[in-house]
Amino acid sequence: MTFENVSKRFAGFGEQHDVVAQFNLSIAKGEIVVFLGPSGCGKTTLMRMAGGLETPTAGAIKLNGVPLGLPDRRRGMVFQSYSSYPWLTVEQNVAFGMRYRRDMTAAAKRERTRHYLQVVGLTEHAGAYPNRISGGMRQRVAIARTLAAGSEILLMDEPFGALDAQRREVLQIELRRILQIETKTIIFVTHDVEEAAFLADRVVVFTRRPARILSIINIASRFGPERTLALRDSQAFFELRNELLAIVRSTAEEERAA
């Protein structure tokens, strides 16, 4: 996926506000890129444009060189809120993402549903309803539904933000594990510096609005693809966290000065 000179301007109350300005970024297939920056800087707007929920004022977002338009199943979004359907079981929720696919038989859909339930570790809870499982499990349901739908790209907007620290850690490790099984491209928005450092292949740090790239930190070159709790406790991770925190704080200081 590539962002080519992407800008976004919103109009309201007789004024126009630039939210994103001439944004350029290329994301490789199978890469996790984390957007990190201050609240209101334009991270989520960029993600919504990538998902087809917003239209750029200028520039283009392309997949395999072809401009993207309205939402399609190549792009799946996972939000902070638990987006399970309460009247459906876990298994039915995962299958729901394939309801309009005409290129698959019913048997193929059932097999694909079972596969992704196993990938996210929810096979034993297939018959449960969302109100009978934890918040972390409901987020795994949302991830499995997006994967089962056939999405090449996962757009994740603070999906673990409402969870406690322990569940966040578990799902961060789970997400990295899933990527070793499934080659998916992920854009992940967070305000959490440690989450960004732990999950990302690259972290893109934003300026205050309008969104511009302040810095890009290559995490994969330091830690490789595998992430463990032992890494999180290491000196190298502590130094990276402090490096990212210093960049984020410089943005906050800029904003206060402005």
Features:
258 residues; alpha/beta; 6-stranded mixed sheet; 4-stranded antiparallel sheet; 10 strands; 38% helix; globular
List the helices and strands and how they pair.
Blueprint: E1 2-12, E2 15-26, E3 32-36, H1 43-51, E4 58-63, E5 66-67, E6 75-78, H2 90-96, H3 106-119, H4 135-148, E7 153-157, H5 165-181, E8 185-190, H6 193-199, E9 202-206, E10 213-218, H7 220-223, H8 229-232, H9 235-257
Parallel strand pairs: 3-8, 3-9, 6-7, 7-8
Antiparallel strand pairs: 1-2, 1-4, 4-5, 9-10
Helix pairs in contact: 2-3, 2-4, 3-4, 6-9
Descriptive overview:
It is a single chain. This protein is of the alpha/beta class. The protein has a domain at 81-151. It has 9 helices and 10 strands. It has helices spanning 43-51, 90-96, 106-119, 135-148, 165-181, 193-199, 220-223, 229-232, 235-257, and strands spanning 2-12, 15-26, 32-36, 58-63, 66-67, 75-78, 153-157, 185-190, 202-206, 213-218. The protein has a 6-stranded mixed β-sheet, sandwiched between helices. A 4-stranded antiparallel β-sheet has the order 2-1-4-5, with helices on one face. A hairpin with a 2-residue loop joins strand 1 and strand 2 (15-26). Helix 2 packs parallel to helix 4 (135-148). It is globular and about 50 Å long.
